[in-house]
Design brief:
- This protein is an alpha/beta fold and about 375 residues long.
- It is built from 12 helices and 5 strands.
- Strands 1-2-3-4-5 form a 5-stranded mixed beta sheet, covered by helices on one side.
Length: about 375
């Protein structure tokens, strides 16, 4: 031994000393994660014992106390140092468990750091988005075409629809949807009435608040709000149900047995919403107008008869029919979007959530787009 250096004052002690051309690492104290443990490269860089050339490295664990994984980390640093400098590692006096744990640690590969995906340039991202949108549009057109063919074959009994599933959808979107539709429609009618009272009273035209409430609810808001509610409620449920069936390979089982998922799963849901959305829209019309009537009676002292008289004198049947027509279109959009996203879902555990989210986003987006198109056509046709 040519020299001894104390390189740490913590409970975990590591000393470097020379024995001829062997660098001895003497361990002492408790090597636990509660204590500060030294790094072997730092010890070597500060030690004069390692300044001259050595042939091998030895571990002296005679004074070693308690230890845990911190000791293994230090020993792996020693091994890496020996490999880097082509030094031999002498047999040590370490506990018998340590070599086995070191071998196990080396057997497990280090986890590679996840690399951020290469998003490419702005032009590349725009191109990818355009191609993805085009593919989604083609997929939606193909899916809608399959549903249309299935509906066309229904009167000829070439299509065997599950009517039990149809009635389940009808029940879910009738009594099951009434509470939330009632609440939202009533609040929308109240908000429109409040807005009309504040604005029209400034011009002495408070009487026409009935026209504003009736026109707004019958032509726009009842169908729009009902469609959004159904998109978040029923559209997401459709996507989650079909997405779960795809994960459990029930969809593949249908295809294997020659049963069309469109006929047995999609058609009852689409027709169920197609049947119920006009009724829900009419119900939302009535509830919203009732809310506006209550506000008008309380703030403008309008009687119910005066309110209805003003409403019927300005609002026509075509306004109500246009709103019901919109509600029917929205129901079809929600059903198709929910079923399509459910059948297109992945096979992992998070696919159901992604399918439900995509169905809601797609459904609401298409509802707003359809609303703009129908209003534009109505303006052209003077409806």
């Amino acid at each position: 031994m040519t020299g001894t250096e104390a390189t740490s004052t913590t409970a975990a002690l590591a000393e470097l000393r020379r024995e001829d051309d062997v660098l001895v690492v003497a361990l002492g104290g408790d090597w636990t994660l509660d204590n500060v443990v030294p790094r072997f490269p730092d010890l070597v860089s500060r030690s004069t014992a390692a300044a001259s050339r050595v042939r091998s490295v030895a571990i002296d664990a005679a004074e070693l106390g308690e230890w845990d994984s911190s000791l293994l980390i230090f020993l792996m640093q020693v091994e890496s140092f020996c490999e880097k400098h082509a030094l031999a590692l002498e047999p040590s006096t370490l506990p018998a468990q340590v070599p086995r744990l070191l071998a196990l640690a080396r057997a497990v590969p280090e986890r590679a750091q996840a690399k951020a995906p290469d998003r490419g340039s702005l032009a590349t991202r725009i191109g990818d988005a355009a191609v993805g949108t085009w593919r989604d549009a083609l997929s939606a057109i193909r899916f809608t075409g399959e549903i249309t063919i299935a509906i066309a074959g229904l009167p000829t009994r070439r299509i065997h629809m599950r009517w039990r599933e149809f009635w389940v959808v009808v029940q879910t979107n009738s009594s099951g949807a009434l509470p939330i539709v009632t609440l939202i429609a009533l609040l929308v009618g109240v908000i429109i009435a409040f807005l009309g009272v504040v604005v029209l009273k400034r011009f002495g035209a408070g009487y026409y608040v009935s026209y504003l409430v009736g026109f707004g609810m019958l032509r726009e808001m009842a169908a729009l709000m009902t469609g959004i509610i159904i998109a978040g409620r029923t559209g997401a449920a459709f996507a989650a149900e079909l997405g779960s069936m795809k994960i459990t390979e029930e969809i593949d089982a249908y295809v294997t047995f020659g049963v069309s998922p469109i006929e047995h799963l999609v058609l009852p849901r689409v027709l169920g919403l197609f049947a119920m959305m006009p009724l829900l829209t009419i119900y939302a019309d009535a509830v919203g107008i009732t809310g506006g009537m209550l506000v008008s009676a309380s703030l403008l002292d309008l009687s119910f008869k005066q309110f209805l008289s003003g409403l019927l004198s300005a609002v026509t049947l075509s306004d109500a029919l246009l709103g019901v027509f919109k509600g029917t279109i929205y129901g079809l959009i929600v059903a198709v979007a929910g079923c399509m996203k459910g059948l297109q879902g992945g096979s992992d555990a998070s696919a159901v959530g992604r399918a439900a989210t995509s169905a809601v986003v797609l459904g609401i987006t298409l509802i707003i787009l359809a609303n703009a198109v129908v209003d534009w056509l109505a303006a052209l046709l003077d409806i």
